[in-house]
Amino acid sequence: MILRTILFILLIAAVQMPVMAQSTNPQQATIRWNASGFTDQATNVTVQKPCQFIVYGSSKIEWIQKGGSLVYTFTITSVSGTWTDVNTNGTLTYQVTLDGTSGSIQVSRSGNVTISLNLPLADNPIKNLYSISGFDIL
Q1: CB atoms within 10 A of CB 4
Q2: 3-state secondary structure of 115
Q3: Which of 130, 38, 28 minimizes the C-alpha distance to 76?
Q4: Can you tell me whether residue 114 is helix, strand or coil?
Q5: Are the C-beta atoms of residues 76 and 46 closer than 8 Å to each other?
Q6: Which pTM value belongs to this model?
Q7: Which residues, other chains included, contact 47 with Cβ-Cβ below 8 Å and sequence gap of 6+?
Q8: Residues paired with 30 in a beta bridge
Q9: How far is the C-alpha of 25 from the C-alpha of 12, rounded, in Å?
Q10: pLDDT digits (tens), the chain, 138 positions
Q11: CA nearest neighbour of 113 among 137, 92, 82, 84
């Protein structure tokens, strides 16, 4: 009976201990950012179309749409900014290329996480701001 009481007290103490969140460096990790929709900054129109961005450290970014049936792969040419813990505020700006077109993708956390996609395509420039609903460390 005493052993059971001691084990119960230890269990309660362990549950009461604060859980430390593991920090993840977004400059090095592979992270899948889940977007619920975006605002077209050229027209100020908000669209509820879910998509994902997978950032592979400083090598590439995949923009996944239509449940995975449409994927664009950007090559990262440079990264600027400082952000060493995905759970804190920070900003990283990736200079990217896609089929010979240069642009930028910025991942930023200031309370909420957003992704800004800027591609100056001649026929249909993209300037979207995505609302991030969650992320996964891959």
Answers
A1: 8
A2: strand
A3: 28
A4: strand
A5: no
A6: 0.81
A7: 37, 38, 39, 40
A8: 56
A9: 32
A10: 664 544 444 444 443 433 344 678 888 899 999 999 999 998 999 999 999 999 999 999 999 999 999 999 999 999 999 899 999 999 999 999 998 899 999 999 998 999 999 999 878 899 999 999 999 999
A11: 92
